[in-house]
Amino acid sequence: MSASKSTAESTAGSAAPVLALRGISKRFGAVQALTDVDLEIHAGEVVALVGDNGAGKSTLVKTIAGVGPADDGVIEWEGKPVTVDRPHAAQELGIATVYQDLALCDNLDVVGNLFLGREIARAGVLDEVEMERRSRELLSTLSIRIPSVRIPIASLSGGQRQTVAIARSLLGEPKIVILDEPTAALGVEQTAQVLDLVERLRERGLGVILISHNMADVKAVADRVAVLRLGRNNGVFDVRTTSQEEIISAITGATDNAVTRRKARSEGQARTEGQK
């Protein structure tokens, strides 16, 4: 483990969370997608959000990003309750989301994609020189290697496209970045590039929510792992002290950990009180 990761972990453990979810629930008709979900993200830490298909990961991400507001529960930003009922509200707070489809335009170059919707203009004319300068500066700061900022996105590899999408999310100077399956369908070398970038985001003091099915990726860069199972919390684990097998057991429901025992106990008490 790198010294920077250890420093980030100690800082995250002592400071108040930048983002906190308290008792988040979400229903779609008769389907209860999320039930009383809690999650905390500190500055300078990577939290992996894992779970089987249908566990509620995408629903929770959309709740945080303002795409699908929660029905119940509270979202806190830097200790204060906030309303995140639309994507713009999340962006204004400092939450950036990079979805799996990346939403890049193949026919535009790197500069055009980085500043899509954020174009810099002077006297009504696009300032291509300034946007190119800022693009080079941003990519250099993140140690992203691109042949040219004027190369069409369609010419880049999958890993390079992913890093461009992540870099674009940083233009708004967010404090929390959500990465939805950033290494899916990437090769070994491309995956390594993306994971290196995730670590650099942490070094910059950002909180990162990493959604992934790849346990090797999770163990490589995450500080904590939050497991969702059937729309509920099923444990938050410290990567340093938890084996991959324990995390997989929580995902599949093979273990009864402190969280599930507490839930079972509270439900049992509720049934007992209801019978009185």
UniProtKB/TrEMBL annotation:
One Pfam family, short name: ABC_tran
PANTHER family linked to this entry: CARBOHYDRATE TRANSPORT ATP-BINDING PROTEIN MG119-RELATED (PTHR43790), SUGAR ABC TRANSPORTER ATP-BINDING PROTEIN (PTHR43790:SF8)
GO molecular function, one term: ATP binding
InterPro entries: AAA+_ATPase, ABC_carbohydrate_import_ATPase, ABC_transporter-like_ATP-bd, P-loop_NTPase
Record key words, sorted: ATP-binding, Nucleotide-binding
SUPFAM superfamilies: P-loop containing nucleoside triphosphate hydrolases
Residue stretches making up the ABC transporter domain: 19-255
Coiled coil: none
Protein's name in the database: ABC transporter ATP-binding protein
This protein's record includes keyword tRNA processing: no
